[in-house]
Inverse folding.
């Protein structure tokens, strides 16, 4: 479980996250939605340690990420998988080398062990046949799947996905959603997804947090989303669903 307590972040005196409280459960797809510039990416960056909030706590199964000693921070980082927007693959590495990369940098396993684990993850996303191809030779959807394989190679407890569907056709988007959903359930991962795609939110958002101007304005399930009487959420939905 990940808990956020009063997360406050500002840039040059401009408040971008204003006291965010929430908790994200394991085995569930937790989604963060909201208009452009409302703080979704900043929140994700605060959670994974790219940005440091001025106030608040991020608790990983009770461990305070922002106050923890270096060893604990390292341990928590190793338990995170991140699927970056666009996949963020290394162009000069093969698909297999991309997936193996976290193992190369964070473990002392033998090359055989690392290749075996990376191949297993590629198999999980249906891409073992593409292991020796270069990223430039595969489609956008395949790149996302490679990104997912790399995100799960360290067997994460926490998975962060920033716009996993951006740039994909609707059919491929459904496949990526399904894959993220299956992996979340299979390994009981606490998954956080930032999304602009309402189809995706309705398909898999078991817990949804709606941000507006850096504040959490609404939270609930996808089933309750459309019943909301919060005006700013109604307005957001009307722009998305028409
Ligand atoms: N490093 C930074 N320095 C200064 N301001 C920043 C920085 N990063 C983000 N911001 C500002 O913080 C606000 C929230 O940005 P954020 O990227 O979190 O929005 P978002 O909700 O993810 O938007 P989008 O859906 O368009 O990606 C924006 O006004 C942005 O300009």
């Amino acid at each position: 479980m990940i808990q956020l307590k009063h997360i406050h972040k500002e840039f040059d005196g401009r408040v971008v996250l204003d006291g965010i409280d929430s908790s994200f459960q394991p085995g569930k797809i937790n989604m963060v939605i909201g208009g452009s510039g409302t703080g979704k990416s900043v929140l994700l960056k605060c959670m994974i340690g790219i940005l440091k909030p001025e106030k608040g706590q991020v608790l990983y199964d009770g461990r305070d990420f922002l106050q923890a000693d270096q060893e604990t921070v390292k341990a928590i980082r190793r338990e995170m998988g991140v699927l970056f927007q666009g996949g963020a693959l290394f162009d000069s590495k093969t698909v297999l080398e991309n997936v193996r990369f976290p193992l190369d940098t964070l473990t002392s396993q033998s090359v055989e062990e690392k290749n075996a684990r990376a191949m297993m993850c590629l198999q999980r996303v249906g891409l073992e046949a593409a292991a020796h191809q270069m990223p430039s030779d595969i489609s956008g959807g395949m790149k996302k799947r490679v990104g997912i394989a790399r995100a799960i190679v360290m067997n994460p407890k926490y998975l962060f996905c920033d716009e996993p569907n951006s740039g994909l056709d609707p059919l491929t988007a459904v496949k990526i959603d399904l894959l993220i959903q299956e992996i979340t359930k299979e390994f009981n991962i606490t998954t956080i997804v930032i999304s602009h795609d309402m189809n995706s939110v309705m398909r898999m958002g078991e817990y949804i947090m709606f941000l507006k101007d850096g504040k959490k304005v609404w939270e609930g399930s996808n089933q309750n989303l459309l019943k909301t009487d919060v005006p700013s959420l109604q307005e957001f939905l009307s722009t998305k669903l028409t």
The first helix runs from residue 40 to 48. The longest strand covers residues 14-24.
